[in-house]
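Hey, I'm writing a tutorial for new members on how sequence and structure tokens pair up, and I'd like a real worked example in the thread rather than a made-up one. If someone can provide the structure for the chain below, I'll link this post from the tutorial.
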Amino acid sequence: MTSESDESPLDPALVATLATLNEAASDPAGKTWSLPKIAKRAQLPMSTLRRVLTQLDAAGLSATTLNEDGTGSAALTDEGRTVCAQLFGANDAG
């Protein structure tokens, strides 16, 4: 596969998921977001979200929790937060 842009060789679904998880990490409620909420915010089909989360989990950037009833949630790891800060800038670093 070839990249359409030299500036952004990353999969757009991967970038959208990281951006959404980064937004979730800044949520004042402090709760992890459900997979449906992440999919809706990232504007991705659930199957694509699950594929991307598998990749991010394997890279140590996110932690996904799947329950027996099919529900689940995901959040950035500390390493994931560091990567997001590098990619998107630390808008509200404190």
